[in-house]
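Re-run with default settings, no changes from the original entry. Doing this only to confirm the output is reproducible before filing.
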Amino acid sequence: MAECAQDSARFRPSANREYSDDERRRLIELAHQVIDAALAGKHLGLTPPSEHLAQHRGAFTTLHLHGRLRGCVGYVQPAYPVWRTVAETAIAAAFYDTRFPPVTAEEAPGLEIEISVLSPAFPIRPQDIEAGRHGLIVTKDNQRGLLLPQVATEHGWNSEMLLAQTCMKAGLAPDAWQHGAELEAFTAEVFGEAELG
């Protein structure tokens, strides 16, 4: 699992739509349900909501509370069906994001959930990166950093700034992308509660 940036962007709707409003609602409701069940000390017996949501995809679940980031964790690789990925990353964002204390029962009703379903990652050249469209993964010497596509949009970064910031997220020098770091990109379908009402 990976954490998203501390200054993760607030919800920006995706232009690309693979998931229907109903599927988006089901995934957001699932994230709330698993957090609430964990707070109550219960375990939900989960089943695939649909064939489409059973497809393996990487995804991040981002939690906001009163307009501020409260947790964000995800899988880059498509290790599990998307519904299970959302369930696991919601639990991880709520209780195991090391940057924040665990979510409390008092906070849970106020959580706003945003989900980013990722495309498979693919190698990319620096000149082909489109800030705002591509999320980025930078890897060098066992160090790895990832930023979701919406982070560049929120901060008004161009592709070079996105490269530098992703390098720094990996604990590397800002210009590591010019010195042998491996670059991979992905796109994301991003949706949140504000969009769905």
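The domain at 122-186 is CATH 3.30.1490.150 (Dna Ligase; domain 1). Confidence is low (pLDDT under 50) at residues 6-14.
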